Automatic annotation (TrEMBL):
Residues 106-144 form a coiled coil. Gene3D superfamilies: 2.40.30.170, 2.40.420.20, 2.40.50.100, Helix hairpin bin. It comes from Pseudoalteromonas viridis. It is found in: Cell envelope. The chain crosses the membrane at residues 16-32. Its main location: other. This is HlyD family efflux transporter periplasmic adaptor subunit. Keywords: Coiled coil, Membrane, Transmembrane, Transmembrane helix.
Length: 418
């Protein structure tokens, strides 16, 4: 005989036991979803740099580095050969016109100078003796002229007296004596004229001799002056005021004629030589304003020249500077420069991200309103300045984006900032 069992109904909570895990899983998923969202990458907020999009005037600048260069620079060359005996200045020293830079020694030049001086003195003494001798001869000739003139006058007086007696019919004077007197007058006149010609010739000879002596003395004086200048050139002096950039010689070193001694540069007339990346030089034009930072002062100049050549990815740009410069402006001083390329009015811009080429489209991570998540957003860029970039599209005023390096999570569309 079968015994009928009494069936017991299971408790209600046991019937609903499967619901609890589902609820727990749902709550967990909600909590995880609320915490992580759609983010597939987590980033420490302290490691990122963000910036907000702004709107307003945007100055487009190109940054460059360079040095101040002297517009007037020249080498001081050796006028004579010699050995460096003393160096009186060093590179960086300010010198004035005529200031002694260094001393050279050359004993041969000293000996040649003394010889030239003695040659000039000997020539002067010889010239003086020659002129004295010639003038003595001239005195004798002048005496002969006077004697001949007196003889002529005496014979002329005698002839005149005899002529008068003959005209009076006085027979005391014979015709023969009268003719002899006429001949004597002619003879004395010729002797007087000959003496005068000799005296004139002597004066001409003395004048020619003096001219020749003057020319020879001038030649010797020029030679002495040249030798003196060469000896003086052993004292090398600055021919212009400026700053010594370089001294090419050391103590005891031999320098030949025309050899380089010192490089002098004017400290007042300077220009800036900048190195601009070739990718930015296309924005630069002559006449644009440039601000130079010397670490202590700022100098405003203008672009004066753009080198057509590219070297190591850089282009040289010369900047003209005003005549009045700060006291710390010196040749070879390193400066930072900002070249003002253009000015944009009422445009969107943001601090320049790590990678932001001009006129391109890049991907930036834009933060949500809470600042917990960042979504990858396509952003079109325009003009690029030193530390800001123009936003053409993709962002609005007030949007906050990550501008630091995001290459580690570029494959993720959304990240979470912890």
């Amino acid at each position: 005989m079968d015994i009928q069992r009494e069936l017991k109904q299971p408790a209600r909570w046991k019937k609903l036991s499967y619901v609890l895990p589902v609820v727990v899983l749902a709550l967990g998923y909600y909590a995880v979803q609320r915490f992580t969202g759609d983010a597939s990458y987590f980033v420490d907020r302290e490691t990122v740099v963000t910036a907000k999009v702004e709107q307003g005037d945007f100055q487009v600048n190109v940054r460059a580095t360079g040095v101040l260069k002297p517009a007037e620079i020249r080498w001081v060359a050796a006028q004579v050969s010699g050995r460096v005996e003393q160096v009186l200045v060093k590179a960086g020293a300010e010198v004035t016109v005529g200031q002694l830079l260094l001393k050279l020694s050359n004993p041969q030049l000293q000996r040649e100078l003394e010889q030239a001086r003695w040659e000039l003195e000997a020539a002067r003494a010889e010239n003086n003796a020659t002129i004295v001798a010639l003038e003595s001869q001239l005195v004798e000739l002048d005496n002969q002229v006077v004697s001949a003139e007196l003889g002529h006058q005496a014979e002329k007086l005698k002839l005149d007296a005899e002529t008068l007696l003959i005209e009076q019919g006085n027979a005391t004077v014979s015709q023969l004596d009268y003719q002899k007197s006429q001949l004597a007058v002619k003879r004395e006149q010729q002797r007087w004229q000959a003496a005068r010609q000799k005296a004139l010739k002597m004066r001409a000879e003395i004048a020619a001799t003096k001219a020749a002596q003057t020319a020879r003395s001038g030649l010797l004086e020029n030679n002495l002056r040249r030798m003196q200048e060469q000896v003086d050139a052993l004292q090398v002096r600055a021919d212009k005021a400026g700053v010594v950039q370089q001294i090419s010689l050391e103590l005891g070193e031999q320098v030949s004629l025309g050899g380089s001694i010192a490089l002098l540069a004017s400290q007042q007339n300077l220009y800036a030589e900048l190195q601009v990346p070739e990718v930015r030089v296309q924005d630069i034009q002559i006449g644009q304003s440039v601000t130079l930072d010397t670490r202590n002062n700022e100098i405003t100049g203008t672009v004066a020249r753009i080198d057509p050549a590219v070297e190591n990815g850089m282009v040289l740009v010369d900047v003209a500077l005003p005549a009045s410069l700060p006291a710390d402006a010196r040749p070879e001083l390193t400066v930072d420069a900002q070249i003002q390329v253009s000015h944009l009015s009422n445009t969107l811009y943001v601090r320049r991200p790590t990678y932001a080429p001009k006129s391109t489209q890049i991907q930036l991570y834009k933060l949500d309103e809470a600042g917990r998540f960042a979504h990858k957003t396509a952003v079109a860029l325009g003009q690029v300045s030193v530390n800001r970039v123009q936003i053409v599209s993709g962002l609005s005023v007030g949007d906050e984006v990550i501008i630091s390096d995001s290459s580690d999570w570029q494959d993720h569309a959304e990240i979470k900032l912890n």
